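User: I'm preparing a small set of examples for a lab meeting where we compare how different chains pack in three dimensions. I only have the primary sequence for this one, and I'd like the structure in token form so I can line it up with the others. Please keep the answer compact; I'll paste it straight into my notes.
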Amino acid sequence: MQDLTSGSIPAQLTRLTVPMFLGIASMILASMVETVFIGVLGASELAAFSFTFPLVMGLSSISMGLGIGASSLIARAQGAGDKDRVRLLATHAMILTGFLVAVLTAAAYLFQHHLFDAMGATPDIIPLVDGYMNIWVLGLPLFTLPMVASTILRSVGNARLPGLIMTSTSAIGIVIAPLLIFGLLGLPEYGLFGSAITHVVIGVYRATFMGWVLIRTERLIVFDGRAVRGVVASAREILRIALPSMLSQLIAPVSMGIILALLAAHGAEVVAGFGITSRIEMLLMMVMMALSSSVGPFVGQNWGAGKTERIHEGLAVSYRFCLVWGLVCLALLGGFGDNLVALVNDDAALVESAGWYLTIVPVSFGVLGVGMISASVFTALGKPLPPMIMSLMRMLVVYVPLALWFDSLWGYIGIFIATLVANVVMGLTAFFWGRHLLAQVESGAVVVGR
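Assistant: Understood. Below is the structure token output for the 450-residue chain.
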């Protein structure tokens, strides 16, 4: 466990952010490498892989929301020095996660085919998508439980070990994926399905070692009668923050599903190009996502310790970083994005559509990052509803209506312009609303955790 209530603020945020970034970025990099392998198989396989993104993101978002809810409570308890409450909340969060995983796995098997059909997947692609997800869902418990465990560990200040586990997991995945996809070293050739099998295999490794850190290294899990007696009360507290956070996290995959349905009307090549650019975007945005995940525990612990001046300084440092990083992303992608995509698949229509995306959307990255930092403050202080409201407004009022309108005017380029506008609106709204919340909380007009 690490105390975040004293010492250099930039150094502490860096120690929290770098392992998280390296871990998740390595996972996305491994996914990008898999995308390259699948691109070799053909445009149909690449399009099928792209259609899985919303469901994969949706299932991941639910576990992320649960982790956010647990982290908000645990970080404040850690800052207040209540070690027993920290351990009970961590234990009950993992029990609750196990229950939700069972429900999610069953739901995915029952409804995934209807989802892909509604998204516009053609009859020749549907079997590929279904076959991939039927295998991928088997690894859902091995993905969800470690993700929540990682969030819990970060809330008590341990970011190094989870980051190391995620990084090593990705390295293993990069080695295994081509063996199963192309049938190397005497193994069967599974094609697209080899990617899903890889997800299950590395999930076993990730779950084993993340559980070891949670139980043996940090000793955050209790095994006596308290684990059962207080689980309902803790689950209620966690879900009060987690449910709005889950809904907020789900907005992105729902939006992506709608956008994929619109892009599908322009051809499988455009969908495949979007799949590649999404991976590139996630890799670059992960720096700011990791930072926003670090801000949550930092704010929670310092609020629990009554050190609000450190919260303001930490936010200022984070905002400046996001704006600078956004400019770096724009410079990289605006000039060279289409060349990166061509390395995966050189289909002319695919490269052209991806090039437009990587020229337009990165303009919004810096402002969106500022909004992500601001949104993490809400959940850290036990106020999950504003981020959910902002996410819903982004999708229902800005993103989808503009995408439909601009698509009719300028085709898929208009959809990308709508993405830019929605990101900027979301970022600015979160920033100003978050600043207002902090002022209210400090004045006593709003009570933390209620």
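A couple of notes for your slides: The chain has one domain: 9-443. The chain has a mean pLDDT of 81.

User: Perfect, thanks.
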